[in-house]
Amino acid sequence: MNSAQTPNTPRYKRIVLKVSGEVLSGQGGYGIDPDEVAFMAKRIKSVVALGLQVAVVIGGGNIWRGKIGVDRGMDQSTADYMGMIATVINAMAMRDALERIGVETRAQTVIEMNKVAEPYIRLRAIRHLEKGRVVIIAGGTGNPYFTTDTAAALRAMEIDADLMIKATKVDGIYDSDPKKNPNAKRFERITYQEAIDKRLEVMDTTAFTLCMDNNLPILVVDFWAEGMLERAVMGEPVGTLVHR
After folding, report:
1. pLDDT (mean) for 21-43
2. CATH code for the structural domain at 14-243
3. Contact in structure between 50 and 12 (CB atoms under 8 Å)
4. What does the alpha-carbon distance between residue 87 and residue 57 come to, in Å, rounded to a whole number?
5. Element (DSSP H or E) covering residue 57
6. Which among 2, 47, 18 is positioned nearest to 203, based on CA atoms?
7. pTM of the entire structure?
8. How many helices (H) and strands (E) are present in the chain, helices listed first?
């Protein structure tokens, strides 16, 4: 707990929440399930209500996965740009869901689409956050060959976030797949270098390295567990903390 924190205030002031596109699809595997989007919006609203400034970076795997195209001969850049456009569709769905439950939200995109979202401008995003608005940042890094994990790390640096939260469906990082190995060990804390050396697949190496170079902590939590996100931002020992 930092010196400015009281028992009823969050440990962090500003976070970036990284969510994969696949979680928006629900049981179907592809597309957008409005019920899943509404559920996620309620989770985000719960931490906004604590006074936290929240930026969200969403993937696009529920609509398009570039690897599928590349494996069939598609140009890598074309496949990646298609994925970036998919993240904009997801951002629009999430913005709508948040607005409908009373959370003021702005969607920004690195790939300019002025009809549907603001262009991503760092200082404008920070200003929105300072006014209590959720900012959804789409379009990845704007360049091919980079994942949305890396995009989330990059945006976290740019907007001076205190923490990046990787939303998953497991309660942290394990040394092996807990769904396949009942004896898998969960890490409560792990260093960036250990995560890289152990080739833990919760995030890509570029994202881990970027966070390590800029000393940005990463918290991996079960986004779907009731109350887990709130506990995480209050500084309780949940999930797995990746730090220096």
Report:
1. 90
2. 3.40.1160.10
3. no
4. 9
5. strand 53-58
6. 18
7. 0.92
8. 8, 11
